[in-house]
Amino acid sequence: MDRPSFKEFDQSFAQFAREQGFRRTELTDLPTGALVAYVRDAEGAGVERSVYISAGIHGDEPAGPLALSELMRKGSFSRNVNWTLLPLLNPDGWQTGTRENAQGIDLNRDFFSFAASETQAVAQWIPQRAPFDLYLSLHEDWESSGFYLYEINACAAASLSATILQAVAGIIPIEPQGIVDGHKLCAPGLILHPPRPDEPDCWPEAIFHADLYSLHSYTFESPSSLPLAQRIAAQVTAVKAAVQGFG
After folding, report:
1. What are the tens digits of pLDDT across the range 100-139?
2. Whether 116 contacts 31, CB under 8 Å
């Protein structure tokens, strides 16, 4: 399975989003194209749930953006949730197939210093949509052999990890034990992370959100060694399980 160019991805996602009633907002212009957010508010009164999902912050991790595109194409985003989606946070990295952006910055370590225009734009725009109840970030890991997730539970809600991992286990293996990404698994596929950074000046996007808002946060990591279609299916399944469990 080949991944599309940025232009192809952007055009197809925009079409699917229009069909599903999402509004498109261009946050900043980049050499490759615009960094774009999509939003849709819940229909009906009394709805309080607000979900934020991001993907593609590393340009060499295509499964997350393509999973969100698949979810959008199939109309999988419920009408009773306030949605905020950033389907491809690093357009330049996507186009070149690199982890970093065009300036060589790892955007997922830049949510403290905000040296990149991408992180600046996100931080300036997010207050228009926040606070969020549930945060999901879709990633891949080039070193792991199985799927795993980070959970930051800053609001003491019931954990969704077991539900998510059980659903994903039907698609790809779960990372069984040991240390992944510098963190020890506390159970198969699970890293419980406090709402603070590992390095004081190198904040991931998830830490930026957890620092600002009392929310429930999950970062999904699918193993890059597996076929792309399988990784996409795992990410789709994880998102669905998280949102349904949250609901």
Report:
1. 999 999 999 999 999 999 999 999 999 999 889 999 999 9
2. no
Taking the C-alpha atoms of residue 29 and residue 26, their distance in angstroms, rounded to an integer, is 8
Distance in angstroms (rounded) separating the CA atoms of residues 125 and 128: 6
User: Is residue 165 packed enough to be buried (19+ CB in 10 Å), middle (13-18) or exposed (0-12)?
Assistant: buried
| Exposure string for 42-75, b = 16+ CB within 10 A, e = fewer | beeeeeebbbbbbbbbbbbbbbbbbbbbbbbeee
At residue 153, φ and ψ (nearest 5 deg) are -110, 85
Distances (CA, A) of 99 to 73, 145, 149, 223: 26, 19, 19, 15
Residue 32 tokens, joined: 């490759």
Give 97-115 as a 3 state SS string: CCCCCCCCCCHHHCCCCCC
In the block, residue with structure tokens 């009633």: 21
Q: Classify domain 6-246 at the CATH class level.
A: alpha beta
- pTM comes to 0.96
DSSP secondary structure letters along 14-28: HHHHHHTTPEEEEEE
Confidence tier at 20 by pLDDT (50, 70, 90): very high
Cβ neighbours of residue 194 closer than 8 Å, sequence gap 6 or more: 152
Residue type at 116 in one-letter notation: A
